[in-house]
């Protein structure tokens, strides 16, 4: 019972993160905008176009290797048409949370970007209809870390220390100091921002893909992408271990040696570019 | 593909991404740089380019492999992890030219 109350308290605090005075204003505005249940393309396009710096970042991202339309998208409305509303919503969050990640955990952005690239590759390989959506889940899978660090800085610092001292992964250490892990926090946030349920699952269950009911494939892709990127040691996500892959998720994707090597090569290229997306 | 700063540019290098000025392509992808091109590029206000070839590695191979062992130390006996480690190891060795 006490646990439940703690959990609800934490959820309420996390969901109210956009009232923090120290929050970058773009992130606050985007977060508030995405809470609207029926957000139209026009509204998003207008919002982005009113901010030249944001426009540049969006266009840079959609034209990068991570989104598969290199050098071809020249306007925000064109980007929304090609990539769809969910992808653009996710990209805006990713771009605006980048700054927080850079400041609070060096290497987390690089890790996230590399996961996005790996996820897109696998989603295409599995002939999914919207590979970019899966890629967005991978980009945002650790967004919970950025927000928890902001609201529970001392608890988070303790979790990081615990992971380091006891030689365990951060996900386990978080359970000792916080009512919920970064994955659960990511799930709450994805719901708050009105993401479709399959994307909510892929973000929220990336450490336990067996819990995904509606989107087992998307979730398995994000889970495996995270592991592949950690296996190569690109970026930093709070600890330096590769977690064990969940066997059913791994088998569901059936990646060949060749696939894994191709993913590692792409991940390598992202790593050399990650610094530029600022 | 690797990213290099202009001061490290040498004739014979091949562009992995086109050299752009605004929306105009100045040199296409796959162009092999000549002496003349290198000096002209040095005069432009560009700070980096993408060229063919594997990126220079920041740490020696032995260290990269030791870090790989450390990352996998808790999970080597778990299903599929040995296989994954083997492939990542081959990939890392490939980055250092086999």
How would you describe this protein?
The complex is a heterodimer of chains A (278) and B (98). Chain A is an all-alpha fold and 278 residues long. Chain A has helices at 2-15, 25-34, 41-49, 52-62, 76-83, 85-104, 108-125, 131-140, 143-151, 153-165, 170-177, 182-192, 197-204, 216-232, 247-253, 257-273. Helix content of chain A is 68%, strand content 0%. The longest helix of chain A is centred in the middle third of the chain and has 20 residues, at 85-104. Chain B is of the alpha+beta class and 98 residues long. Helices cover 37% and strands 15% of the residues of chain B. Chain B has helices at residues 35-43, 61-72, 81-95; strands at residues 2-5, 19-21, 24-27, 48-51. A two-stranded antiparallel sheet of chain B has the order 1-4. The mean pLDDT of chain B is 87. At the A-B interface, α14 and α16 of A face α2 and α3 of B.
Topology, element by element:
The complex is a heterodimer of chains A (278) and B (98).
Chain A: H1 2-15, H2 25-34, H3 41-49, H4 52-62, H5 76-83, H6 85-104, H7 108-125, H8 131-140, H9 143-151, H10 153-165, H11 170-177, H12 182-192, H13 197-204, H14 216-232, H15 247-253, H16 257-273
Chain B: E1 2-5, E2 19-21, E3 24-27, H1 35-43, E4 48-51, H2 61-72, H3 81-95
Antiparallel strand pairs in B: 1-4, 2-3
Helix pairs in contact in B: 2-3
Question: Which characteristics define this entry?
Answer:
heterodimer; A: 278 residues; mainly alpha; globular; B: 98 residues; alpha+beta; two-stranded antiparallel ribbon; elongated
SS summary, helix count of chain B:
3
Order of secondary-structure elements of chain A:
HHHHHHHHHHHHHHHH
Strand content of chain A: under 5%
| Overall shape of chain B | elongated
Order of helices and strands of chain B: EEEHEHH
Biggest β-sheet of chain B, characterized?
2 strands, antiparallel
Which stretches of chain A are low in confidence, meaning pLDDT under 50 for 5 or more residues running?
Answer: none
Q: Give the proportion of residues in helices of chain B.
A: 25-40%
Q: Helix amount of chain A, in percent? A: 55-70%
Q: Please report the distance between the alpha carbons of the first and last residues of chain A.
A: 44 Å
How large is the count of helical segments of chain A? 16
């Amino acid at each position: 019972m006490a646990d439940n109350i703690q959990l609800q308290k934490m959820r309420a605090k996390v969901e109210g993160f956009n009232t923090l005075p120290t929050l970058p204003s773009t992130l606050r505005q985007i977060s508030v905008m995405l809470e609207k249940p029926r957000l139209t393309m026009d509204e998003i396009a207008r919002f982005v176009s009113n901010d030249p710096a944001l426009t540049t970042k969006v266009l840079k991202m959609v034209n990068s290797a991570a989104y598969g339309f290199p050098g071809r998208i020249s306007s925000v409305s064109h980007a929304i048409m090609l990539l769809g509303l969910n992808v653009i919503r996710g990209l805006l969050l990713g771009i605006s949370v980048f700054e927080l990640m850079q400041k609070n955990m060096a290497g987390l952005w690089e890790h996230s970007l590399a996961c996005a690239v790996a996820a897109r590759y696998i989603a295409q390989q599995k002939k999914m209809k919207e590979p970019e959506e899966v890629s967005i889940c991978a980009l945002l899978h650790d967004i919970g870390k950025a927000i928890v660090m902001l609201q529970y800085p001392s608890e988070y610092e303790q979790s990081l220390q615990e992971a380091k001292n006891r030689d365990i992964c951060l996900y386990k250490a978080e359970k000792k100091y916080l009512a919920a892990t970064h994955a659960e926090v990511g799930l709450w946030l994805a719901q708050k921002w009105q993401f479709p349920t399959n994307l909510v699952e892929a973000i929220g269950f990336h450490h336990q893909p067996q819990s995904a009911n509606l989107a087992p494939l998307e979730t398995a892709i994000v889970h495996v992408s995270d592991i592949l990127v950690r296996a190569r040691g690109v970026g930093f996500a709070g600890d330096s271990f590769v977690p064990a892959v969940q066997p059913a998720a791994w088998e569901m994707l059936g990646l060949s040696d060749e696939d894994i090597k191709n993913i590692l090569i792409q991940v390598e290229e992202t790593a050399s570019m990650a610094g530029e997306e600022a | 593909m690797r990213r290099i700063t202009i001061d490290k540019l040498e004739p014979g290098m091949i562009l992995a991404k086109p050299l752009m000025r605004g929306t105009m392509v100045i040199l296409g992808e796959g162009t092999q740089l000549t002496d003349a091109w290198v000096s002209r590029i040095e005069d432009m206000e560009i700070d980096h380019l993408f060229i063919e070839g594997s990126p220079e590695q920041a740490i020696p191979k032995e260290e990269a492999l030791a870090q790989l062992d450390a990352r996998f130390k808790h999970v080597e006996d778990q299903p599929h992890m040995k296989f994954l480690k083997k492939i990542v190891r081959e990939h890392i060795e490939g980055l250092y030219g086999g």
